[in-house]
Each structure stands twice: as structure tokens, then as C-alpha cells.
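2024-03-11 09:14:02 INFO queue: dequeued item LNS2/PITP domain-containing protein, len=323
2024-03-11 09:14:02 INFO validating residues
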Amino acid sequence: GRWWFSWRRKEHEISARKSNEVSKNQEDTTLQRRQNDSSSDEVAISSHQGDRSMPDAITQKFLPTYKKSLRLSSDEIKKLNLRDGPNDVVFSVTTQYQGTCRCEANIYLWNWNDKVVISDIDGTITRSDALGHILPHLGKDWTHQGIAKLFHKIHLNGYKFLYCSARAIGMAHITKGYLECVNDQGWMLPKGPILLAPSSLFSAFHREVIEKKPEVFKIACLTDIRNLFGSNSRPFHAAFGNRLTDVYAYKEVALPESRIFTVNPKGELIQELIKITKSTYERLGEVVEFLFPPIGKDVASPEFSQFSYWKSSLPTVDFEDFV
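2024-03-11 09:14:37 INFO prediction written
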């Protein structure tokens, strides 16, 4: 009986082991099948996604990219068919909060060899910076005497005028209207582009009146204008301002000190090369032919004039002999 029991026991153990091995093998095969199925599904999904991503990548590669800009390219400017002098244009600007705004402006077409005279507005045409923003709107004439007559004479000699101010762009219409209404005994200011700071009214007023750093905008703006004429050209002939920051900005665009003029609230005009001598706009208008000679087609630049060519060169001095 024992052997039968023991034999049955051994047989039971062997059968149990075989059943366990079979069950393990079945589990392994099912796991392997599941892994294979999942891997095949992943491969199918990845291949399907790859098939989808391929045309997306191709379409993204050939889609044109657009960027908002207020600067026109040369081809776009050519399509405008501009004429010499001022041209009236209308464009729209779309913003998130203000929507679409319709703007009117002027595009000036000049020759590559034109000579430009720069003029500040506040403190240069007006008598002071802060009151120059306020008093003209109240009907008060706050313009320097003789400046309109001087600028008109300079313009008749063939020079172009460029008005550059650190005022906000929102004051463009007011500033343009003020310059057009300046009347000094029948003399009017010459027309020209008005370049203002592309910022809000409070930030522009704070930068110009409180911080007193308008040269940051003026240097960048005048540098862009100078680059339009070429890298080695000097289109700016003279400049008028009322602060040391204006002088610094004008020097940064290669203007000589002999043709930089500053005016104080009293109307006294100072040439930066000779700061001791003081003049006025009216007195400068009497000798305008000497500082602003008429521009003709055959007139050479001052660097190649008769005086510059025939003058005797200065002797070389060795400063070590004086030590």
C-alpha cells in the first residue's frame, strides 16, 4: 500500500511539475505574443504617424512665413511709383487692443546726392521744450524769431530739410499742423519729413523732458536715414539743436562741428566750433550764402573744393622736441 501511495504520490508530483511547466510555457508564449502584438501595434502606429508627419513636414517646409514690419523692401517701394518730393500714402495698422487703424503719411523721394539739413523742433523751433508742447495749442506764438526766414533761404539754395524730434508718434498730426502754421512775417518753414519716436506720449515726454535722453532715438533714426544714401556718403550738411545731447547725436552721424548750431531760450545761436561767438537766426540769415552756398549740378563737395585742394599743408611737428 505504501508503494502504491508513494507511487501515486511520485506520479502526482511529476504530473504536477509537468502541468506547472506547461502552464509556465503557455504563460510565456502568451506574454511573448502580447509583446509581439504590442510591438507590432507600436510599429504600425509609428509607421502610420510617420506617414502622417511626412506630408506635414513637407507642407511646413514649403509654407511661406510672414512677419509684421513697417519697413518696405526695395521692390515694394518700386511698385509705389513715387515721384520727386512728397507723396501721399495711406496704410493700415492692426493691433490686438485698438483694432485696425487707418494712417496717412508722406513718403519723400530724394536724389542720392541731395544735401539734408536736420532740425530739432522743441527748443530749436520753439523757445523751450516743455512749453513748446503746450503753448502752441493755446494759440500762443512760441517760435524763435527769424528761424522761418533762415530755413526758407537755405531751402531756396537747394537743401532738403529733415525734422527729427523725440516727440511721440501720436503727436504726428499736431506736430505737422504746428510746423505748417509757423508764419514769421510771411515766411514759412520748408516742408520735409517729420520723424518722431515710435512710443507713447508719456514715455516720450518722460524721456525728453525728465530723463533728458532724446539722443537715443535720434542717433538710431538718423543712422537709418544716412544708410539710405550709402555707407560712405555724407548726406547731412548741417544741423540745428538746443542741447548737448543734440550735438552728440549729430556728431554720431558724421556732422562736423563747424555746421552744428545750438540755440538757447534767449534766441542766441552758437556754433559748436566757435562757442565764444554768439549770433541769432536773423544774423545767420544775412550770411546764409557763405555757410549754405547754392547747390548746383557741377558744384563739388567741400572736401574737394578749390580751397581744400590749393591750400598749403601744415608742417609736421614732432612733439617730442617740446618735451
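2024-03-11 09:14:37 INFO annotate: Residues 74-104 form one domain.
2024-03-11 09:14:38 INFO item closed
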